[in-house]
Amino acid sequence: MPGENLSRDEARERGRLLSVDAYDVALDVRSAVGQGQAAATFRSRTAIRFRCAEPGASTFADLLAPSVTSVTLNGRELDPAKVFDGTRIALDGLAAENTLVVDAQCAYSRTGEGLHRFVDPEDGEVYLYTQYEPADARRVFANFEQPDLKAPFTFEVTAPEGWVVLSNGAQEGDAEAGTHRFARTQPISTYITAVVAGPYHYVTDTYRRTFEDGTELVVPLGALCRKGLAKHFDADDVFTVTKQGLDFFHEHFDFPYPFGKYDTAFVPEYNLGAMENPGCVTFREEFVFRGKVTEASYERRANVILHEMAHMWFGDLVTMQWWDDLWLKESYADFMGAFAQVEATRFANGWITFANRRKSWAYRADQLPSTHPVTADIRDLEDAKLNFDGITYAKGAAVLKQLVAYVGQDAFLEGARRYFKRHAYGNTRLADLLAVLEETSGRDMAAWSRSWLETAGVNALTPQVTYDAHDRITELSILQEAAPEHPELRPHRVAVGLYRRLDADSALVRYARAEVDVTGPRTAVPELAGSERPELILVNDEDLTYCKVRFDEGSLATLRARLGDLPDPMARALCWAALWGLTRDGLMPTRDYLGLVRRFAGQETDIGVLQTLHGQAQTALEHYCAPDRREAAARELAEGALHELRLADPGSDHQLTWARHFAAVATTPADLQLLGGLLDGTAKIDGLEVDQELRWSFLEPLAAHGVADEDVIAAELARDDTASGKRHQVRCLAARPSAEVKAQAWADVVESDALSNALVEATIAGFAQPGQRELLTSYAPRYFAAIERVWRERSIEIAMDVVRGLFPAWLVERATLEAADDWLAAHAQAAPALRRLVLEERDDLARALRAQACDEAAGPRP
């Protein structure tokens, strides 16, 4: 892996020397079929026309390939053995204008990096797709792999007859002898070029829009998935959201969609949620739902569709110069995706999901030792790979939401419009965006940027209140705190809401509200002085800023007693998120948080919030609960889940969500017997349809508790002999409570590279199960002994999965923390990206120990 890295300094020097005029790429992927899993390489021929600012200078092109057949520079044949070292092609004596032609044998991927090859176990069909970000186009064709060396691309792909083949541009004419030629693209970066090829199920539609000047834009639309998923494919809903998004962005961006057609490809074994390749957006195929899912799943898919669409402008049309400014595309896409979803689609509660789910991701990332400013210091490609994180996405988006409150929506969107027109098809840095926002808002964006984009950490906002003898507020202030290691106190535009019951039996309603600019350690809110005593003071009401919300004692007591009496879903979501933050920070005993979930989660109306609560409750149970309380807490959670499952409306989203949660926390023989009965049909819950996906959800805990053996799992695979079924089977097999099973799973992931990325992920997910700590104890030292070798020998995607997924977090003990510290001390020279991953996992472990200590200090249950 180290030889594949590229530093920022190298990229800057190459960017200073070169400008690229065009790429012509020809791929022959006919070797993908007829060889089972054994197909290894395909032919890749690339011609690059580029200029050099200093004739006579030397540089290099990027290529990761098993072999190079020929290299020609300006008509001069170069010896591949001398100029190609496996990762780079040395180029000396450049002219002012140059043509480089490289003919190579490139490798098919099974890790989701480069050109991924998937063999469908259901019918033996082969499917290909590319995934490059941040720098894996060099696994498919020779190039200058950095975002600022943009160029037009022409692709030609020779594939088996009858295949659907797509690229960024529209296909020109019919395929001849399996060769598909695609229109030249606009100037784009290498990492967003794309090829999708295989016997895909392909559906088409058309988007039309007439502008005020009478011109019409026609965008051909396509949507595709594997043939095996065609019966589940709801392409009409995908097209509906796509058209709604295109309308929204045209209305607000005043720059017509610039990339011709718009294909949406759902592909197998995908590492990401999706990727914004212009004209050919790729998504993980799990967004084609094989069974009943909740409305939250459709909301999530719509959000991802709109996120990737926002990238057509933020990222594809205008691209960051280097990965330091990755936020220029990801933060904006995350914000605009939620904005478009709420304004243009049926998912009007998108900001609630953002507040409760996306920002939780950001708050976790911003409290890790690896936290960084939104504008990050990215030294090389390994840094870049790890910075696709909660700060770059969710914190950056939350900061932009705060910016909209700060400068106003009109000024914000006008800044975007000027940004696109000024920098179309070019590359930018932070200063370029700040310049247009200063123009449109009249605000000093430099000061705002220093506080919000160029410093790390999250502030905590706490209300402080005093009352007079008549129970009226005499003074209400907001106290702002920062962690010592990140002491920046930021300006926050916040709303403060006061809530109380109008009578003893009524809901908690807001009766007073004020917006205030919080600055420094203490800010008064004089507008609320004189208000009647509230039962709840909610700082950051309506979620205008990015902060940790704290409560005064009276408000916390109210939430403990009547959280379910808050009818406003946003206010309720913000309170749930704040309570989870208190639990993670070791300021609220875990038993209290789990008690709140048991008492009030059943009243939660927002299905996305409910799913988040279930996931957080499982984390709290497994990692934050005092060990001597864990068994009882698990039993109580399962009892509560089963109670709510039986109460839920038959066939409802809530019923399905409680069924999945019950399966995840079931531990007692009676619970497991019920799951088994639901699987074999001897037990029923009115309205609950146990479809194939839910069957696998029920089978995994049965396997983990030793109730379902290998034969039972094999029989389930026979019912669902598909790619999805295979992933579920592998996970269930690895979940079984057997020393031999764990040893085999470990060997399959750590000692072998035979598994594909999807099966590595499934094996890791099954390996560590709650209640199997004794079985897994011996793997902690083995983990620390293996990870440096894994990082050196495996692709970065797989290495990241192993380092994160197999960290011995199942042993929440001081000894595990000391082992991590010992490894870090002994490996000071290890790859910085590897050290970062271990530091992050170590920090989560330390947090879990603090939370357990808080739970233990709460004493025995009353």
SSE order and pairing:
Blueprint: H1 8-17, E1 18-28, E2 41-52, E3 59-62, E4 67-73, E5 76-78, H2 80-83, E6 88-91, E7 97-107, E8 114-119, E9 126-131, E10 153-158, E11 164-167, E12 179-181, E13 195-198, E14 201-210, E15 216-225, H3 235-253, E16 262-267, E17 274-275, E18 280-284, H4 295-311, E19 319-320, H5 327-344, H6 350-366, H7 381-386, H8 391-407, H9 409-423, E20 427-428, H10 430-441, H11 445-452, E21 460-467, E22 473-481, E23 492-501, E24 508-518, E25 522-524, E26 536-539, E27 548-549, H12 553-562, H13 569-584, H14 590-600, H15 607-624, H16 627-647, H17 653-665, H18 669-680, H19 692-704, H20 710-719, H21 723-735, H22 739-751, H23 757-767, H24 773-776, H25 779-793, H26 796-805, H27 814-826, H28 832-857
Parallel strand pairs: 1-10, 15-16, 16-18, 19-20, 21-27
Antiparallel strand pairs: 1-2, 2-7, 3-6, 4-5, 4-7, 8-9, 9-13, 10-12, 11-13, 14-15, 17-18, 21-22, 22-25, 23-24, 23-26
Helix pairs in contact: 3-4, 3-5, 4-5, 5-8, 6-8, 6-13, 8-9, 9-10, 13-15, 14-15, 14-16, 15-17, 16-17, 17-19, 18-19, 19-20, 19-21, 20-21, 21-23, 22-23, 23-26, 25-26, 27-28
